Structures are given as structure tokens and as C-alpha cells.
Amino acid sequence: MLELTDICKAFEKNTVNEKVALDQVSLSLNSGEFVTLVGSNGAGKSTLLNAIAGVYLPDCGRIMLDGREITHLSEHQRATWIGRVFQNPLTGTAPQMTVEENLVMAWKRGQRRRLRKAIRSQERSFFSEQLATLGLGLEDRLTTKVGLLSGGQRQALTLLMATLRKPQLLLLDEHIASLDPRTADIVMDLTCRIVNEQQLTAIMVTHNLEQALDAGTRTVMMHEGRIVLDIQGPERKRMNVMDLMNLFEKNSGANLNSDRVLLAARA
Amino acid sequence: MLYVLAGTLEQGLLFALMVLGVYLTFRVLDYADLTVDGSFTMGGAIAAVIIFSGGNPWLATLAAICGGLLAGTITGLLHTVFKITPLLSGILTMTGLYSVNLRILGRANVPLLRADTVITRFNSWLPTDSIYGASLLGLIIVVLAVVALYLFLKTEVGLVLQATGDNEQMIRAQGVNTNHMKLLGLALSNGMVACSGALVAQNQQFADAGMGIGMIVAGLASVIIGEAIFGKRTLLQHIIAVVCGSVVYRAVLALVLRLGLAPTDFKLLTALIVVVALASPQVKGWLGKGKNNRKGETLDA
Ligand SMILES: Nc1ncnc2c1ncn2[C@@H]1O[C@H](COP(=O)(O)OP(=O)(O)OP(=O)(O)O)[C@@H](O)[C@H]1O
Ligand SMILES: [Mg+2]
Fold first, then answer.
1. Which of A1, A221, B130, B223 minimizes the number of CB atoms within 10 Å of its CB?
2. Residue A103: inside a domain
3. Is B293 within the bounds of a domain?
4. Across the interface, do A118 and B163 touch by the CB < 8 Å criterion?
5. Residue B206 sits in which domain range?
6. Is 80 exceeded by the pLDDT of residue A155?
7. Domain count, chain B
């Protein structure tokens, strides 16, 4: 489904501040695989997701999605097949516009946008049906401006927008990290449910190692721009957080130097 | 007094299209487009030259709109293709247009006295002579423009245009080429501005190279006044508010003129109105009155 070959990305190239964020990363995902991606701060997780989404083009390497080469396509072209949820709940929605307007723009992702009335009664009932599945009462707030919703509500809405029209690939970059624990649980449950129901292929970045092992079907660890660990199947099932940390240290020769990871491990 | 009222209404309505154009870029698209001074004059110049040489005034106005569409497109290309900042892209087009407009005019001033304009044509359709002829024509055009703009902004394309100004990152992730949307918005905006310039030139019966100077600030003042008085809760309310703002702004100018201010001081007054409007949230903050004072609110807030 997704095939990354030798992806490299350096920031501020040819300056003293040059920073290699991705160092020949190769990764191959089968259809329906749900990868949880973990790693220390600055490991290159966000850069990897952004390179897949086309926010910036990689310096070298090749990206194939469902048999199509997308290496050189721009961000908006790739959006036809890729749904995204961002770490910041403010990023994924248009605050001055209403819930239904946001939804209809997402519903038209990858479709031709025409000069006709965007929202009619049939769209409206479809959207309120879909919103009801979130269980947050948003189905009664179709005409509320999104800026008035809470962070959790906005993030759930972004998740719905990313999956309203089934994407071939769903990219989640620490999408629950900035929510309070209770809301984070709700949005995490929603994520797992939607991914299961729609049989989505997905990559989720997280700093919570327990979550990385609980959710999804495969766990990938990054360190300094490289993939240092890739586990799935029975091997992954047997693993607990301590095993994961030990394995990481063995493979990368470093501590998992992330405050957030340690906190998550203790919690 | 009646003449003053008619004059104010007339000015307010004929300039309202320009204000709608400023609203579309500054508010909807969140793009500080300074092309306006140039595209307004361009609209007036194109219409005046065609009418002066005996052309059909309706077609002349249409040609002016096309000129505005082109001017906006150039600003948009400077920004989207060459990555020039919004502010500078508009200034560059505006500056270039000054020379272009002089070329179009062919002289400093093209008079349209006793010429066949859309206003004289419209007046000839009215049963009686009226001092409100130009206002009525302006009203009809503005109502059409408001309805068209509102309906357009509610279409599938219109929504993503709004979203481009609201959250560019979000709408790109939804598969929209935001460069196209900016080009579209800038073209439409300057098309409206040029149409306004064409109507104003025909109403004042001349066009000159300086008729657009300070237009952008006048447009902003109208937008801000309209929002402050008539509110901006819904899209339709917001659009109608800025049109009304245009009329109120012209009324304020007429009033201070009566109070003895020289017309040459208008631009200073207009700049002051905008400064006061933009500064008031800050000042309220300093006075400790603004409870939910949004710190640092600026034009693009
Ligand atoms: N736009 C940029 N300009 C310069 N350097 C950048 C940029 N984006 C990321 N980097 C650098 O690239 C490296 C990888 O960053 P990235 O954001 O991918 O890390 P991450 O794994 O997502 O980390 P975190 O867990 O903190 O989110 C870091 O060293 C970062 O400083
Ligand atoms: Mg990150």
C-alpha cells in the first residue's frame, strides 16, 4: 500500500545548522496495517509524516502509494488519498466556518468542487448521522462556528473530516497529545474504532509507549532520522513497555531521551 | 440638504463595490491587497477612454471589470509564483499600474461632460428626471453584487475560498490548491474595484490618473465602520454591513465638509478613522476596561 524507499530529508542544508531529519528511511506498509510510530524528541517522526503528506519534498528517495508514485506530487494533490490529523487541534479545522461547512469541504476532498450550493438538506442529514457516531453531541451543532468548540471536539471533528471519505492512508501526528486525559481517551477510542471499521491503513505518532503497544498492529521506533526497531505479530504481542525500552536502547545505543516517554511509562 | 443626502447616497453606493472588493481580500481571503488604488483608477481610465471615443458605456464598464480582473491576477501571480509577500505584491502592481493608467488615459485627464454614460442611459429610462438616478443605479448594482457574492461564497468553491483565508493549512490538507483560490479571490476583488472606478468616473464625468489615490484606506475605513455599526455575526450580515459602512463613511465625509474641513484633508481624516478603529482594542487594554480584550488585534485579525 505505502512504500517508502531511502527517504532523506535535511533542514537548512549547506549551513552550519544543517540537520539531517531523515536518513535513508525505508518502510513498507500493507493494506490495513495500523502502525504506531514512537521515538525520542527530534527523531524525525513528524518529518516523516510530513514527507509522506507532501508538506515538503524529500531530498532523495521514492514514495509509492497504492502503486502510484507520489514522490513529486504537491501536498494538495496527495490529499486526495491521504487523511491527516495534527497535534494542534486548531490546525485541522477552519474556526470561522461552521461545523457543516468544515465537513462539506472534507467530504469533497479529491472531488471536483463546483459552483453550486455546497450544503443542501441531504448533506445536512448525512453529516448529522456521521457526527452522531462520535457521541459528543455535535450532531445538534451543525451551524455552530468551529472556533467555539473545545479542543477535544475540534480534534474529533478533524478525525471525522480526515476519514469521512475513506482515505487510502491516515496520518495521525500525536493527535491526542495536547488533550486532557479524559478527552484524549475518548478521541483515542474513536480513532481505533474508525480505523477498525473502515479497515484503514494508518500511521500514528505517539509518545505513550503503552498506547503504542496497545493500539495498532505494528510498532516502529525511530532515532536520529533512522528506523531502529520494527515489530509486529506475536513478538509484539508478548512485549511490554520495559521490553520495548530495553530493545530500543540495545538497537540505538541511546536512552529513549524523551521526558514525555518517561512520564508515559511511569503513568 | 436634499442634494447633500442624494450626493452621499450616490457616493456611498457607487464606492460600495470597491468596499466589497476590499472586504473580499482583507476579510475573506485575509490578504492585505494594495492593488486597489491602481485597479480603481484603471477601471475609471478604461471606461472613460472607451466612452470618450464614442463606445457603448455598458461595454466600457465591462471592459473596466476585465482590466480589474487582470490587475488582481497579476498581483496573485507575483505572490503565488514568485513568492513575493502579499503586501509587496500589491504595491508592485499598484505602482506599475500608475504608468499603465497614464498610457490608457493618454493624458492627465479624460473629461466625460455630456458624454453617453451608464448613468445618463439609466436616467433616460426613468419616467421623470430625478436627483436619485445615479443612486438608484448604484443600489441595483450593489444589491446584485451582494446577492451574487453571498451565493458564491456559499458554493463549494466559495467555501474553500473562505477557508483559504481562515486556515490555509487545513484546506490544503483537504486537497485544495490554495494558490488558485488566492488568484480567484484577488481577481474577483479587483474586478469589483475596477467596476466601482468605472461607475465613479462616469458619475463625476471625468477620469484622471489620481482618482484612486488613498482608495485602499477609504475602503478599509468603510469596512471597519460597517462592521462596528452593523455587526458581522453571519456572512450575509457582514457583507451588508460593509456596504452600509461605505454609505456611512461618505456621510461622515459630507458632514465634516459642511463643518468646514477642506476636501484635501479627507485623506488624513480617513487615515485617522482607520487608526482609531485599529488602535481602540489596544487602548481599551491599556485602560484596563477590555475584559476579553484580544491583544494585538490588527487588520488581519
Ligand atoms: N522546519 C524545520 N526547519 C529546521 N529544522 C527542522 C524543521 N522541522 C524539523 N526540524 C528538525 O528536524 C529534526 C526532526 O524533527 P521532527 O519534528 O521530525 O521530530 P519528531 O520526531 O517529530 O520530534 P517530537 O517528538 O519532538 O515531535 C529535529 O532536529 C528538528 O529540529
Ligand atoms: Mg513531532
1. B130
2. no
3. no
4. no
5. 2-212
6. yes
7. 1
Of the listed ligands, the closest to the CA of A86 is 2
Q: Which residues of chain B lie closer than 8 angstroms to A101, CB-CB?
A: 159, 162
Q: Is residue B257 part of a domain?
A: no
Beta bridge partners of A220: A37, A230
Q: What is the CATH number of the domain that holds A40?
A: 3.40.50.300
- The whole-angstrom separation of Cα B170 and Cα B174 is 7
pLDDT number for residue B167: 97
Which residues of chain B have a CB within 8 Å of the CB of A105?
A: 159-160, 163, 171, 174, 176
Can you give the residue range of the structural domain that contains A165? 2-95+150-260
pLDDT, position B294: 46
Question: Which ligand 1 atom minimizes the distance to the CA of A56?
Answer: 1
Q: pLDDT tens digits, residue range A202-228?
A: 999 999 999 999 999 999 999 999 999
The pTM score is 0.92
Are A76 and B170 in contact (CB < 8 Å)?
A: no
Q: Contact A105/B173, CB-based, under 8 Å?
A: no
Is the beta carbon of A42 within 6 A of some atom in ligand 1? yes
- Provide residues of B within 8 Å CB-CB of chain A: 151-152, 154-160, 162-163, 166-167, 169-178
pLDDT at A256: 63
Confidence of residue A261 (pLDDT cuts 50, 70, 90): low
Please count the other Cβ atoms lying within 10 Å of the Cβ belonging to residue A181.
8
* Residue at A101 is within a domain: no
Q: Is A169 helix (H, G, I), strand (E, B) or coil?
A: strand
Chain A partners within 8 Å of B163 (Cβ): 94, 97, 105
Q: Would you say residue A55 lies in a domain?
A: yes
Q: Where residue B298 falls among pLDDT bands split at 50, 70, 90?
A: very low
Beta-strand pair A60-65/A2-11: antiparallel
Name the residue among A97, A109, A118 with its Cβ closest to that of B175: A109
Residue of B154, B158, B166 with shortest CB distance to A94:
B166
Amino acid at the residue A21: A
Is A131 inside a domain boundary?
no
8 A C-beta contact, residue B175 and residue B40: no
Read out DSSP for chain B?
Answer: -HHHHHHHHHHHHHHHHHHHHHIIIIIIS-----THHHHHHHHHHHHHHHHHTT--HHHHHHHHHHHHHHHHHHHHHHHHTT---HHHHHHHHHHHHHHHHHHHHSSSEEE-TT---HHHHHHHHSSS--TTHHHHHHHHHHHHHHHHHHHHHTBHHHHHHHHHHH-HHHHHHTT--HHHHHHHHHHHHHHHHHHHHHHHHHHHTEEETTTTTTHHHHHHHHHHHHHHHH--SSHHHHHHHHHHHHHHHHHHHHHHHHTT--GGGHHHHHHHHHHHHHHHHHHHHHTT--TT--TT--TT-
Domain assignment present for B248:
no
Interchain pair B174, A161: CB under 8 A: yes
Residue A97 pLDDT exceeds 90: yes
Backbone angles phi, psi at B260, to 5 degrees: 105, 10
Q: Looking at the domain assignment, is residue B277 inside a domain?
A: no
Of the candidates B247, B198, B220, the residue with the CA atom closest to the CA atom of residue B39: B198
- A188 vs A215: CA distance, rounded Å: 9
